[in-house]
UniProtKB/TrEMBL annotation:
Metal-binding keyword on record: no
Gene3D superfamilies: Winged helix-like DNA-binding domain superfamily/Winged helix DNA-binding domain
InterPro entries: HTH_MarR-typ, MarR/SlyA-like, Tscrpt_reg_MarR-type_CS, WH-like_DNA-bd_sf, WH_DNA-bd_sf
Listed GO MF terms: DNA binding; DNA-binding transcription factor activity
Domain called HTH marR-type: residue spans: 16-148
Keywords: DNA-binding, Transcription, Transcription regulation
Organism of derivation: Umezawaea tangerina
Identification of the protein by name: DNA-binding MarR family transcriptional regulator
Coiled coil: none
Phylogenetic lineage: Bacteria, Bacillati, Actinomycetota, Actinomycetes, Pseudonocardiales
Keyword Membrane in annotation: no
One GO term (biological process): response to stress
Top-level taxon of the source organism: Bacteria
Transmembrane intervals: none
């Protein structure tokens, strides 16, 4: 039996997982909108997160980006290569360990910070709409618990 959720009908097979089904739909739409907004800046999803980390931390080893962005080596390598080709980041040998590579934002990368911050604000505005601040706080708390649950489930 299917139940209505918003404007979508919950498939009967998802009846025992309505929260998971709702998360799947919401995440898909959020990623789609983020991708659209990033395309306007000439970026792909995830590249803005890499730049944000570099802006906060300064030059970092590529291995740190793998950990911080919770990704794999091949994905981060491709992302860094694309950003480097676009002139937004640069790679250099780590002076403390010649085997390691440091990644840093370039002047061009720093120059798009305001645009990315504006894009992130637009994404947030579209995401939360007119949800009242107290409900936003409750939503953030619930999402933090969902994340903790999923982290625990992936570790077991």
């Amino acid at each position: 039996m299917s139940r209505e959720r918003g404007t979508r009908k919950l498939p009967s097979a998802a009846g025992r997982g309505p929260v998971s089904h709702a998360l799947f739909r919401v995440v898909r739409l959020h990623r789609m909108l983020a991708g659209h907004l990033l395309r306007d800046l000439g970026l792909h999803r995830g590249q803005e997160l890499l730049l944000m980390h570099l802006w906060d931390s300064g030059p970092v080893r590529q291995t740190e980006l793998i950990e911080v962005l919770d990704s794999d080596s091949a994905t981060i390598t491709r992302m860094v290569q694309r950003l480097e080709k676009a002139g937004l980041v640069e790679r250099s040998p780590d002076p403390r360990d010649g085997r390691a590579t440091l990644v840093s934002s370039t002047a061009e990368g720093d120059a798009i910070r305001a645009e990315i911050e504006r894009m992130w604000h637009d994404l947030e505005s579209s995401t939360v709409g007119d949800i009242p601040p107290t409900t936003r706080t409750a939503l953030l708390d619930a999402l933090a618990q969902v994340e903790a649950n999923l982290v625990a489930a992936t570790r077991s």
